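Q: Predict the bound structure with nickel (II) ion.
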Amino acid sequence: MSILPIRLAPDLMLRQKAKRVKYFDGSIQKLIGDMQETMHAAEGIGLAAPQVGIPLRVIVIGLPEEEDIVLLNPQVVRKTGERVVDESCLSIPGYVGEVKRAISIIVKARDPSGKEIRIRGEKVLSHALEHEIDHINGILYIDHLETPDKLRKIKPTKTETET
Ligand code: NI
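A: Predicted complex:
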C-alpha cells in the first residue's frame, strides 16, 4: 500500500462527478488499500477517491476505534432530520465550517467484493457519509455554508474530524 498525495481545493478533480465502479478487480482493491492508508496517515476520518486524483465512486471512512467502512458506488436511500455540525476536509486544510447535515442516513452501496450492502449512519458517521458522497459528486462542504462567516480559520494542525 502507499500513501497518495491529497488534492487541495481549488483542484478541478474535486469538482467533477466521479464514475461508477464497474470492475471489482485487483486495481480497485489496491486503490482502496492506498486510500485507507492515506486517510489514516493524514489523521482524517474519511476520504473519497477524487481527493487522491481518481475520479471513481469510492469512499472510505475511518472513525476512531472502529473498523474502516469502504463503500463503492454509494447512494443515499434516506436522510432523516437536520442539525448543524462543524466540518472540515483534508482537501481544505486549516478551516472548519458550520453546515447543516442529516441526523441519520441510510446508504446503499457495493462492498469491495461487489456485494450490495446497506448501512445506516448516525451522528458523526451520518455526516461523514454525506460529506464523502458529496465528494464523488463534485461537491465540497464549503458549498453548503449559509454565509461566508460560517467558515473559520483554525490553526494549521490536524483536527479529528477532517474528511
Ligand atoms: Ni472532504
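A: The chain has one domain: 12-158.
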